[in-house]
Amino acid sequence: MRNGYGDRPGLITYINLGSDWAERWVNVGSKFAGYTIHEYTGNLGGWVDRYVQYDGWVKLTAPPHDPANGYYGYSVWSYAGLG
Q1: What is d(CA 37, CA 15) in angstroms, rounded to the nearest whole number?
Q2: 17, 51, 70, 73: most buried, per Cβ within 10 A?
Q3: Nearest CA-CA partner of 78 in 41, 46, 27, 53
Q4: What is the CATH number of domain 12-79?
Q5: What is the pLDDT of residues 58-70, one digit of tens each?
């Protein structure tokens, strides 16, 4: 997780070096708590938003590392609606 600074919001990167899809509950702390975050790479196959619980927990997903089939093993998340 990168906190950001000033008007830069920060982000969460979930890396998966495995050959299967990965999904995990992670605690991203208070920075994103209570907000909806968006996956900005498109690596999950479309528009994906997740709500971060007020205690900072959110379930994130990352595709497998399988470039031959168009999967690159990571997802990048930040506040929804940034651009």
Answers
A1: 17
A2: 73
A3: 41
A4: 2.60.40.1180
A5: 999 999 999 999 9
